[in-house]
Amino acid sequence: MPEHTPAPTPSRAVYGFAMFLSFRTFFILYLVWAVLPEEWFRYVGITCLPQRYWAVAIPIFLLTVLAIFAFVIYPNLGLFMTPNVDDLRTIKDSTCVKTNKVNLPLPKNSEIKCSCKNEERCFKNDFERNCGDYVSKAIPVLQDLNIWEVSDHLYFK
Q1: Is the model more confident about 75 or about 99?
Q2: pTM value?
Q3: 90 DSSP assignment
Q4: Over the stretch 104-153, which tens digit does the pLDDT of each residue have?
Q5: I want to staple 97 with a disulfide (CB 3.0 to 4.6 A). Which of 1, 21, 143, 150 is the partner?
Q6: What letter does residue 20 receive in the DSSP assignment?
């Protein structure tokens, strides 16, 4: 069984060339039908042709459908697939690292003023006890911010 790949193959090249020629031929026939007067067709012996109205109506219809799809349907599909604002998926994803401790370096002999409302959630004492364990000027691990702490800091302090 051949592998499915977008690479060019001889059969794909033949199909592509045949489609190119057929679409070019149909477009030229369309232009001849839309532009030349009906007397020329009668002179050649062609008497059964569609009305000229369709030469304009079909392209306008197709362009209208394309515009509705591009500006209405496609953006709405994206909106329908997006979770609601109050959904947890808008806050955290599958790569979220759950930590209950802040691992930031703290320089020695510094005075930290604690402004925490809840003493149980305050990590000031952990920083002061474990200050020697942290590497100075270390970059913390990349992780998601806890949305509740961010909201508490932004709106309730």
Answers
A1: 75
A2: 0.47
A3: G
A4: 444 554 555 566 666 666 666 666 555 555 555 567 677 777 778 888 88
A5: 143
A6: H
The structure tokens 């020629």 sit at: 21
Nearest to 128 by CA among 141, 115, 109: 109
- Tallying the residues shown for the chain, one arrives at 157
List CB contacts of 71: < 8 A, sequence separation 6 or more. Answer: none
Token pair belonging to 149: 């702490």
Place of tokens 């020329």: 40
Residue 27, both tokens: 């477009």
The residue among 58 and 89 whose pLDDT is bigger is: 58
CA angle 100, 101, 104 (to 5 degrees): 150
**Tokens linked to 123:** 């990590």
User: Residue 128's closest CA among 141, 140, 111?
Assistant: 111
